[in-house]
Amino acid sequence: MEMDNVAIIESIGAYLKSLRQQKKLSLEQISEVTRIKVRLLEDIENDIFTNLGGLGYAKAIVINYARHLGADETKILNLINEKFSQKPMHISREKSIQ
C-alpha cells in the first residue's frame, strides 16, 4: 500500500530525490526546466535550506521543483511546514533581556 511507502520518507529532500530518480531525470535536466541552479537543487535534496535566500524563497523554490517532478503538492507543503515550524530561524536573547 502506498501509505506505508510515504511514511518511510521523512524529509523533503529524500522525497524529491526519490521522485526525480524514479523519473530518471538528472539535476541538470531539472535545472534547465525550472531555472534553479544545480547547486541549489543538490542543497534541497540534501535538506540544506540555508542557501535559498530566506523562508519565502526557500518555499517557492522547493514548490517549483516539486511541481516539475509532479510531486503531491499537499504533501510537500505539509513537509515544508513541518520542517520550518520546528524551530525559529534565529532569536537573539541578549538584546531582549536588557
What does this entry look like structurally?
Helix 5 runs antiparallel to helix 6. This protein has 98 residues and is mostly helical. It is built from seven helices and no strands. The longest helix has 15 residues, at 55-69.
Mean pLDDT: 83
Structural class: mainly alpha
What is the distance, rounded to the nearest whole angstrom, between the alpha carbons of the first and last residues?
A: 56 Å
Uncertain runs with pLDDT below 50, 5 residues or more? 1-7
Strand content: under 5%
Radius of gyration: 15 Å
Number of strands: 0
Which term fits the overall shape? globular
The main pleated sheet reads as:
none
Helix and strand run: HHHHHHH
Helix content: 55-70%
Helical stretch tally: 7
Keyphrases for this structure?
98 residues; mainly alpha; 7 helices; globular; disordered N terminus
Strand and helix map with partners:
Elements: H1 2-8, H2 12-22, H3 27-34, H4 38-45, H5 55-69, H6 73-85, H7 93-97
Please summarize what this structure is.
This protein is mostly helical.
